[in-house]
Amino acid sequence: MAIDKQRQSTTAIARNADPAPAANPVPVSIDDMQPVAGGGILHRRVFLRRGLALATALAGGSAAAAGQADVNDASGLPAIPPWMRTPGQPFTPYGHPSPHEKPVARRIGANRLVPGNGVSWTPLEDLGGMLTPSGLHFERHHNGVPQIDPEQHRLLIHGLVAQPLTFAIDDLVRYPMQSRLLFLECGGNSNAGWHQEPIQRPLGSFHGLVSCSEWTGVPLAILLEQADVDPKASWIIAEGADAIAMNISIPLAKVVDDCFVAIYQNGEKLRPENGYPLRLIVPGWEGVLNVKWLRRLQVTDRPVMARNETGKYTELLPSGKARQFTFVIDAKSLITSPSHGQLLPAPDVYEIRGLAWSGRGRIKKVDVSADSGKTWAEADLQEPVLSRCFTRFRSAWKWDGHPAILKSRAADDTGYVQPERNALVAERGRHGYFHYNAIVAWEVDEDGVVSHVYA
Amino acid sequence: MAIDKQRQSTTAIARNADPAPAANPVPVSIDDMQPVAGGGILHRRVFLRRGLALATALAGGSAAAAGQADVNDASGLPAIPPWMRTPGQPFTPYGHPSPHEKPVARRIGANRLVPGNGVSWTPLEDLGGMLTPSGLHFERHHNGVPQIDPEQHRLLIHGLVAQPLTFAIDDLVRYPMQSRLLFLECGGNSNAGWHQEPIQRPLGSFHGLVSCSEWTGVPLAILLEQADVDPKASWIIAEGADAIAMNISIPLAKVVDDCFVAIYQNGEKLRPENGYPLRLIVPGWEGVLNVKWLRRLQVTDRPVMARNETGKYTELLPSGKARQFTFVIDAKSLITSPSHGQLLPAPDVYEIRGLAWSGRGRIKKVDVSADSGKTWAEADLQEPVLSRCFTRFRSAWKWDGHPAILKSRAADDTGYVQPERNALVAERGRHGYFHYNAIVAWEVDEDGVVSHVYA
Q1: CB-based contact B289:B330 (threshold 8 Å)
Q2: Residues 294-323, chain B: which have Cβ within 8 Å of A?
Q3: Which residues, 6+ apart, have CB-to-CB distance to B31 below 8 Å?
Q4: Full DSSP string of B75-100
Q5: Fewer CB atoms near the end CB (10 Å): N or C, chain A?
Q6: How far is residue A34's CA from residue A46's CA, in Å, rounded to a whole number?
Q7: Is cis: bond before B338, omega within 30 of 0?
């Protein structure tokens, strides 16, 4: 769909490139059109000075004279479309996207040998703003989505506590709550970046194991205090109520610091594929720790050494040692438009758009480059810029029709800067699979076709 | 559903009120339990000191000994539920709420005489956080929801401009965008507040013509500059592509200041019932101005005097004059829990939760009262507190089992304070219908039943 849409966009824009000119072009000031970095990166105020003129101009207010098929008379009013000639659809108890948006969907990569094992990817290239609609939030399941009856579900807190406790959902909703806008990223997101050759796929089908939601629930500090944790405790083992009883270890200090049990996502109760009725939220740390269908928190003095912290989520480094418990998501950014598979119809001014996030705090700045990183310019960040949340960035770019390589580079408020790919590979070696956060490069060729490159 | 859930909650909590005590009660400090206002409003840190103990305690870690039917052996582990005994549901391209949440739906109030005329209400009492899921965003339609083909849809800008323009969707998505988290409220929301007797309905079915989303789109200042607006112009008439071609007048200065044409809502393309493919967004101003299915912006030097600014949305004041063009939504707040129809199972500590918003800027503070406004205490505001956006507030309250009247009172950063009902009625008279923003009072009786009162 993304590609189809762009091709349709091509048509629309080609129309505007016709001899029939757009609105009287008022010259943009020299200052505004002066690049702020190589390859044509401009100050974004260029858009306020008619740097882009894609509208169809109507001659002297008379649309008929302009020969526009979509305008019906000399008044310049648009023709009455069929949907204005009949009453529309009735009210609905719960709404859904337009049928025209059906192609905007999660791309499913399921394991045929294990029922319900696999992933589905958020189509990041089709989205605007910072939120991910719950229906398009990425999924990573090991054995499918359990259909849980919330009346029967319980959360158990036990282990190194003075008082083991169980909580029903109706009890938990009485506890004090907090809300946070947070990204959630699978530690295995973008792992094709480790391949020898750059993968050619739409952005979301390569980097789309990351999404952003408002989560609301009960701080674990409160529930753990009630259970009265033993001073010897240092870890918590979280377990989900899916058929494999997925479990994982989390340092107790993190859990007490800012983790919570989410009951609501984007205002309503969690979706089944996102943990209904309870999900552990571990802000800024890799997705696997954010256990869905949470049923058990065992307080211990050591990690459980589960599959997902031994056989998986460990990586052999060039030194011969292995990384393990690599919890935090480092700063990362992606240009969502232009991106792979999209097509720039003609040399013109474009808005570069993207998303940035960091598991360590707030995005401090995002730089963009149109000359493969030789020069950079700072992109505009959409407020509010929140800790451990998606930040949308935007920049202006005048494409001159020559091949160009676009990059974005995020920095967070700890001073960490997203690395170039060769630096990441040098540090982590050729056995990487998890935590790929290198700068992504898109090449725009002379035909305006966008592809993925290592550059 | 809200009521049913609360009644279920009663059962769960009654269980905890059994002789079998909850976790060893560690005394809350005198300071924390000292009310900060009359009627038992407490500092919210009381929750961190075990002010609430709804969990089921398991004796010495042995659940079997505790006689819990939901725990299956002496290890204290919960019994294996049926959904852990079989692989779960497969991946889905687009997700939906759990079947158990089906009762959480918009309540539809449709006019039987006019197809597609009416409203649907957001069930605010069932939601958490600040966002409204798009599927539950309130609706106000005059003639149903048009099923628009985005390929055929055009936006026309004409009238007092040097260059009339039309825009296709594929053109508009190329323009620079902005995103804002904004509430949207119908000017007629809460109008039952003008009734002589307090209406007895769930919160959302009385106050639910207000919702909050992230909207992303193109600033109108850019499109209007391209059309080159005549200096004589002072108004814009916006028209939608529904079957009644709903239209309304907006001062040009507001449009240029901060209005935009939204293409995305909560990350994805607008929902059909929220204006797909284009909606005019007028931050902080009444919903009717935020024209859905936007097809035309006519630049003029006077308002059009449409039905919705003459026959409707005007009000006779006690002075004999009428209010007209009452655009801005004044500060308002609602306690969403406890609220009408809910039931407090027993005297205990409760979290008071609610939403506050102002069309003039940021919420500066929300006060809550448990003694009908004799004394007030400041509630905690959930960050981020954003201009013209929902702000979730929370407070702690110890209900002693005696009748109590709960109120919330919002103040915004202009200094405006939400009025008591009698002050609003004195100012606006008995012919009010629109812009009802008085303080709402909930009475909790000695049985814990919550009802709506004028107090």
Answers
A1: no
A2: 295-296
A3: none
A4: T-PBP--GGGSS--B---SS----GG
A5: N
A6: 10
A7: yes
* Average pLDDT, rounded, for chain A: 89
- Amino acid found at A59: A
- Which of A:362-421 have CB within 8 Å of B? 382, 384, 386, 392, 394, 396
Tell me if residue A20 falls in helix, strand or coil. coil
Q: Which helix (H) or strand (E) holds B24?
A: none
Specify the pTM: 0.91
In contact, A52 and B175? CB cutoff 8 Å? yes
Q: How many CB atoms lie within 10 A of CB A326?
A: 16
User: Which amino acid would we find at residue A247?
Assistant: N
Q: Are A139 and A186 in contact (CB under 8 A)?
A: no
Using a CB–CB cutoff of 8 Å, tell me whether B8 touches chain A: yes
Sequence spans of domains, chain B: 1-17+26-49+329-455, 139-313
Q: What share of chain B is helix, strand, coil (3-state, %, to 5)?
A: 20, 30, 50
CATH architecture of the domain with residue range B1-17+26-49+329-455: Sandwich (2.60)
Q: Does B158 touch chain A (CB under 8 A)?
A: yes
pLDDT at A262 over 60: yes
Cα A28 to Cα A47: distance, rounded to the nearest angstrom? 9
Residues of B in contact with A164 (CB under 8 A): 57-58, 61, 63, 76
Q: One fold for both B1-17+26-49+329-455 and B139-313?
A: no
Interatomic CA distance for residues A21 and A23, integer angstroms: 7
DSSP A298-356: EEESS----GGGTTSS-EE-TTS-EE----BPPPEEEEEES-TT-B--SS-EEEEEEEE
CATH placement of domain A139-318: 3.90.420.10
Q: What CA–CA distance (Å, rounded) separates B288 from B295? A: 15
Tokens representing residue A177 in the block = 């709550």
Q: Do residues A152 and A166 make contact, with C-beta atoms less than 8 angstroms apart?
A: no
A196 touches chain B (CB under 8 A): no
Largest CA-CA distance found in chain A, in angstroms, rounded:
83
- Pull the structure tokens for residue B78: 């919960």
- Sheet of strand A139-141: strand arrangement: A107-110, A118-121, A139-141
Contact partners, residue B159, CB within 8 Å, separation at least 6: B233, B237, B297, B298, B299, B300
Contacts of A93 in chain B (CB under 8 A): 105-106, 108, 120
Are A237 and A160 in contact by the 8 Å Cβ rule? The answer is no
How, if at all, do strands B294-300 and B154-159 pair? parallel
Pick the CATH number of B139-313 from 3.90.420.10, 3.40.920.10, 3.60.10.10, 1.20.1740.10: 3.90.420.10
**How does pLDDT run along chain B (455 residues), one tens digit per residue?**
333 333 333 222 222 333 333 333 344 455 677 889 998 999 888 887 666 778 788 764 444 333 344 444 455 667 899 999 999 999 999 999 999 999 999 999 988 888 899 999 999 999 999 999 999 999 999 999 999 999 999 999 999 999 999 999 999 999 999 999 999 999 999 999 999 999 999 999 999 999 999 999 999 999 999 999 999 999 999 999 999 999 999 999 999 999 999 999 999 999 999 999 999 999 999 999 999 999 999 999 999 888 888 888 888 888 888 888 889 999 999 999 999 999 999 999 999 999 999 999 999 999 999 999 999 999 999 999 999 999 999 999 999 999 999 999 999 999 999 999 999 999 998 888 899 999 999 999 999 999 999 99
Quote the CA–CA distance of A406 and A371 in Å, as a whole number: 7
Cα distance between residue A252 and residue A361, in whole Å: 20
A16/A22 Cα distance (integer angstroms): 7
Option in B96, B131, B170 nearest A135 (CB): B96
Beta-carbon separation of A168 and B56 below 8 A: yes
Q: Phi/psi of residue B256, each to 5°?
A: -70, -30
Residue in the block written with tokens 């009890």? A171
